[in-house]
Automatic annotation (TrEMBL):
The keyword Zinc does not apply. Its EC number is 2.7.7.13. It comes from Desulfotomaculum nigrificans (strain DSM 14880 / VKM B-2319 / CO-1-SRB). This is Mannose-1-phosphate guanylyltransferase. One of its GO terms (molecular function) is mannose-1-phosphate guanylyltransferase (GTP) activity.
């Protein structure tokens, strides 16, 4: 089976991080989320991928190329103007002649794809939507289903007064090609607002798949930090981590000064240097090629690549984008710090 990733959104709620890079390229534990998800799919034998891009497509294309480096075969389809989720799916019609998987690109989850496909086949539905339960469903597609797990209603981002279920669309689907035929062409279409309700109205059966124990949309800075906490604590596991250790991963050629204080769980990338009397952690990620100065403190923070933290600086619950420098004795708490902004944004 082939998989399609919807990777064209602007990532507005993750600004300013997404001013520089498209959301699918935002690193999760030092590697782009899209890479992590595609690698997981490869583990299920899914090696043919279609990437539907629009916002900053060249960064995605340059990084992944034809997919050979990851053992995948990646094809691209680019929109000049956003076609919406449904229009983007319609645009990929030529790639699919059988059932296929669709992923939103900002989802971190532990869904068993093999089980999802098996479930879809058993339901003889035109589509299967993976669902998950959340406390506040109003930011998502809210789904009601019957006792046989077929959808009764789909409401995208309903007003809180209209919420009748805490099951939401997890942004992972299996579609039969009939879905493609039902999407109007030549204009922007939302799969959530238009296609799902219309399929239901026409009497098509859409099944819900409730498997999977971890799910998170990393679409806001707060959720991005939470996703990292969940990985660091082992609630959502990544393959390279050693969860019995204080430092769950250390990349090659990293140097930690013997007088640095590491409070786990911490993840350290490649070629990183942690200076004397620096305190790192808990719940902290230090990216590749970072230099963390003497006596500084980095806690609850996600530091991307090539960042310098000068001596005595403090970062608490903060995200620092690539190539930034945190000057001596500066202190940031609950901040998204990027090179492009002269005034860091509070979360
Ligand atoms: N190619 C393309 N073109 N991709 C797009 C476009 C477009 O015009 N618009 C959005 N996308 C991609 C985004 O990059 C993202 O991967 C995915 O489609 C969903 O867009 P989001 O902007 O992240 O949507 P959302 O988070 O508000 O809601 C969606 O995800 C929720 C789960 O996280 C919906 O599918 C909800 O129903 C769902 O609950
Ligand atoms: Mg999203």
């Amino acid at each position: 089976m082939k998989a399609l990733f919807l990777a064209g959104g602007m990532g507005t709620r993750l600004r300013p991080l997404t001013n520089q890079i498209p959301k699918p390229m935002v690193p999760v534990m030092v590697r782009p989320l899209l890479e992590r998800t595609m690698t997981k799919l490869k583990g299920y034998g899914i090696e043919q991928i279609v990437l539907s891009t629009c916002y900053q497509p060249q960064q995605i294309e340059e990084y992944f190329g034809d997919g050979g480096r990851l053992g995948l075969k990646i094809e691209y389809i680019r929109e000049d103007i956003p076609l919406g989720t449904g229009g983007a799916i319609k645009n990929t019609e030529k790639f699919f002649d059988g059932p296929f998987i669709v992923f939103n690109s900002d989802i971190l989850c532990d869904i068993n794809i093999e089980e999802l496909i098996r479930f879809h086949r058993s339901k003889s539905a035109v589509a299967t939507i993976a669902v998950t339960q959340v406390d506040n469903p109003s930011m998502y597609g809210v789904i009601e289903f019957d006792r046989d797990d077929y959808i009764v209603s789909f409401k995208e981002k309903p007003h809180p007064s209209e919420i009748t279920s805490n099951y939401i669309n997890a942004g992972i689907y299996v579609f039969e090609p009939d879905v493609l035929r039902e999407i109007p062409s030549g204009r922007a279409v939302s799969v959530e607002r238009e296609v799902f309700p219309s399929l239901l109205q026409k009497g098509y059966q859409i099944a819900v798949y409730k498997g999977g124990s971890y799910w998170m949309d990393i679409g806001t800075p707060a959720k991005y930090l939470q996703a990292h906490k969940d990985i660091l604590s082992g609630r959502c596991k990544i393959p390279e981590a050693d969860y019995t250790s204080n430092i769950i991963f250390t990349g090659k050629n990293s140097k930690i000064h013997p007088h640095a204080r590491i409070i786990g769980p911490v993840y350290i990338g490649e070629h990183a240097e942690i200076g004397a009397f620096a305190t790192i952690g808990p719940y902290t990620v230090i990216g590749n090629h970072c230099v963390i100065g003497r006596g500084s403190k980095v806690a609850g923070s996600i530091v991307w690549d090539k960042v310098t933290v000068d001596s005595g600086a403090r970062l608490i619950d903060t995200i620092v984008a690539d190539n930034c420098r945190i000057h001596r004795n500066m202190e940031f708490c609950k901040t998204v710090y990027t090179q492009q902004v002269s005034h860091p944004m509070a979360m």
